[in-house]
Structures are given as structure tokens and as C-alpha cells.
Amino acid sequence: MFFKILIFCLIITFSYSINANNNRLIIASTTSTYDTGLLNYLNKEFNKDHELIIHVLALGTGQAIKVAEQGNADILLVHHLPSEIEFVKEGHGVKRYNLMYNDFIIIGPIDSKDNCDSIEDILSKIKNYEFLFLSRGDDSGTYKKEISLWNSIKLNPNNFSPKWYKKIGQGMGSTLIMANEMQAYTLADRSTWVKFNKKENLKIICENKPPLFNQYGIIAVNPNKYKNINYKSAKKYIEWIISEKGQKLINNFKISGQQVFFFNHQ
Q: Dihedrals φ, ψ of 160, to 5°?
């Protein structure tokens, strides 16, 4: 993954150096918005009215932020509020907007008898009984959320035994494949779960709890800090996606008949 990011950034940097970049827009985004097909769907609609070449770099939130911090993206679309606020505070971004939300879910073996009365109960049970748990361990928004959930009940995953708590350094799709094969617990975003097909050994263990709320934000990268940023097009895209038209498109996007993202810009 590191080398893919490096190669992409080198290509983009070279392209910037020889091109005014007026017709290219680069979006560094979390994998869930890309793997579900949402961004492809939105970008096709955007291009009906605007002639832009849109490149999407789909990464974990942490990696997407690093790419944007290097000035190698025009727009950042991710889902970890503290990191997004820090990104703008440090001058890398112009302004952060709430865009949409969905939720995280805790999944586990299909034959599990667990009832999720609370996040604390289910996580404590996983830890106390040392049930197999797969952690993405990849600096993604999902991984950051997972760590915050453990921390909220005063547990530190750094102290967990690798016999049952396994950091696999993989994206959401690969994590779900492994969880299905190993009949393990993990944390997933609902949109990827709905899109995912190979889950015959898994089921949702915990859902619809306030701590599992998953907010997405969108930010234009600061052109005053990075001279090659296509801020004009980034601004146009953000204004479009937070408009009434963007709201309708996001809310109408469905996977297997199920709405998986909910517009909430105000």
C-alpha cells in the first residue's frame, strides 16, 4: 500500500509540475465511499454539468490525510472528526463541512449467542473470554473508532494478547474476508458490510448504539499552502455536493435496496 501511495503521489506531483491542472480534481477519500460505489455514482452526476477529470485516491482515513497534507489532493473526504479538525487547524484545509453519516457495527460469528445491551458489555466480553478479534490496525477511520471504543471503557489494546487480538493491517474488505474465514469479531462500517457478499459465517452483533455513529466530512485543501491545488474546482465540487442536489443523490444511493449514507450538511 505504501508503494502504491508513493507511486501515485509521484505521478500526481509530476503532472502538477507540467500542467496548470485546471481540469483535474483529486479526491483523497476513505475506502468506504469508493468501494461501495458512492463516489463513482456522484462523480458521474457531477460530470454531467462539469467537465473535469476526477481522480479518487481511496485509502484509510489516516493515509488519505497524509496525502492531503503533502498537497497531493485537492479535496479530503474522510470520517474521523478529531483528525479533520486538526487538519484544518494546522492550515492544511480551508474549511470542514459535515457531509453525511452512517454507522459502525460490531460483527461476529453467526452462531454467537451474544446480546448487545451496551458497547461496554460486548467489548468486555470479547476481552474477558479472549474471543478472536480482528483489528484493521491501519490508521483508518474505522481503526481509530475501534481504538476509541476500547479506550472509552478504559481498556488499552496495546496490552491485549496477540493470541486473540490480531492487528492485520488490511482494508475493510480484506478484514471481512478474514473474519468470515476465521469466524472472528471485528468492527466494520455498515456500508461496506452491506456491499460485502462473503459473510455466510458472520452476523451483526451490535448496532444502533450512539457510540457507533459514523460522521463523514469534506474539506478543500488550502491553496495558500500548496500552490498546485485546484481550489477553484474543489470549491465548485464541494458547493455542488453539499447542495440540495447532492443531498438527493446521496440519500438516493442504495445497495441492495438499502440506503447506506445519510446526508446531514447544515
A: -80, 150
**Residue 259 near residue 251, CB atoms below 8 Å:** yes
φ/ψ of 22, rounded to 5, equals -70, -25
- Please name the residues in contact with 191: beta carbons below 8 A apart, sequence gap of 6 or more: 32, 36, 38, 102, 255, 260, 261
Q: Which domains does the chain have, with CATH numbers?
A: 2-101+215-263 (3.40.190.10), 103-212 (3.40.190.10)
SS3 227: coil
Instruction: Name the packing angle between helices 61-69 and 2-18 (round to 10°).
Output: 30
| Window from 2-6, 100-104, 206-210 with minimum mean pLDDT | 2-6
Ordered DSSP codes for 30-48: EHHHHHTSHHHHHHHHHTT
Cell numbers found for residue 1: 500500500
β-sheet bridge partners, residue 76: 28, 219
If phi > 0 it is left, if psi is from -120 to 50 it is alpha, else beta; for residue 90 that is alpha
Angle between helices 141-152 and 119-128 (to 10 degrees): 90
Give the pLDDT band of residue 266 (cuts 50, 70, 90): confident
Q: In this predicted structure, what is the pLDDT of residue 22?
A: 75
pTM of the model: 0.90
- Give the integer Cα–Cα distance in Å for 13 and 25: 13
The average pLDDT across 211-224 equals 97
Q: pLDDT for 150-205, tens place per residue? A: 999 999 999 999 999 999 999 999 999 999 999 999 999 999 999 998 899 999 99
H helix runs in the chain, sequence order: 2-18, 31-35, 38-46, 61-69, 81-89, 119-128, 141-152, 172-182, 190-195, 231-241, 244-252
